[in-house]
Specification:
The complex is a heterodimer of chains A (about 120) and B (about 120). With about 120 residues, chain A is mainly beta. Chain A has strands at about 5, 10-15, 20-25, 30-40, 40-50, 55, 65-70, 75-80, 85-95, 105, 110-115. Helices cover about 0% and strands about 50% of the residues of chain A. In chain A, the strands form two sheets. In chain A, strands 2, 4, 5, 6, 9, 10 and 11 form a seven-stranded mixed beta sheet that branches. A four-stranded antiparallel beta sheet of chain A has the order 1-3-8-7, with no helix packed on it. Chain A is globular. Chain B has about 120 residues and is an all-beta fold. Chain B is built from no helices and twelve strands. The chains are: A mainly beta (about 120), B mainly beta (about 120). The interface of A and B includes residues 2, 33, 42, 104 and 111 of A.
Chain lengths: ~120, ~120
């Protein structure tokens, strides 16, 4: 158990809908990362937050947004869902030490199925 | 360019065989970090090891060992006496500078099947 929690574990929804994925980092970790893993594209970095502020952005679509709250939990919002958004979404956390290179610990993932 | 290459897409071995998973990286950063993660069929990503660019000592943890060679930009992972529970996708990753930030760059993974 990495100490990172994600809810829900599974989510099935329809095209055009909006969903929210939730992540709680390990105790003491200030950085949260979101990744998308689909069969055809591997593991794609979406976005990173550090202590409530956006720190880095990856291949995140405009239909997707995220935030990190004062208690450090994070939410990833996916809207206007398309079939191609079906994937495993991971949250990871790290201490966020300056200079980077710290280990990211991953949550169990949320499997999103868009029908 | 910063890149991680895991040339072996799939490997299949019989239990008790030793197996080595290759990882080759590219970076111009002088301070970087290398990682291995395991993704078993259940789907979670499990951290295995982190190594910084200044520490070329090989590491052994039980049946797992890692060989870091800066001269060949490789960070290979060996499982000794493989077991069925080792069946998983293994990812190698590189943390290197990209502008003002440090980015984690992932290989595409090697799927290991250990057959009884």
């Amino acid at each position: 158990d990495s100490g990172v929690t994600q809810t829900p574990k599974h989510l099935i929804t329809a095209t055009g809908q909006r969903v929210t994925l939730r992540c709680s980092p390990r105790s003491g970790d200030l950085s949260v990362y979101w990744y998308q893993q689909s069969l055809d594209q591997g593991l794609q970095f979406l976005i990173q937050y550090y202590n409530g502020e956006e720190r880095a952005k990856g291949n995140i679509l405009e239909r997707f947004s995220a935030q990190q709250f004062p208690d450090l939990h994070s939410e990833l919002n996916l809207s206007s869902l398309e079939l191609g958004d079906s994937a495993l979404y991971f949250c990871a956390s790290s201490t966020g030490v300056r200079g980077g290179g710290d280990t990211q610990y991953f949550g169990p993932g949320t499997r999103l199925t868009v029908l | 360019a910063q890149k991680v290459t895991q040339a072996q897409t799939e490997i299949s071995v019989v239990e008790k065989e030793d197996v080595t998973l290759d990882c080759v990286y590219e970076t111009r950063d002088t301070t970087y970090y290398l990682f291995w993660y395991k993704q078993p069929p259940s789907g979670e990503l499990v951290f295995l090891i982190r190594r910084n660019s200044f520490d070329e000592q090989n590491e052994i943890s039980g049946r797992y060992s890692w060989n870091f060679q800066k001269s060949t930009s490789s960070f290979n992972f060996t499982i000794t006496a493989s077991q069925v529970v080792d069946s998983a996708v293994y990812f190698c990753a590189l943390s290197a500078r990209a502008g003002n930030n440090r980015k984690l760059i992932w290989g595409l993974g090697t799927s290991l099947a250990v057959n009884p």
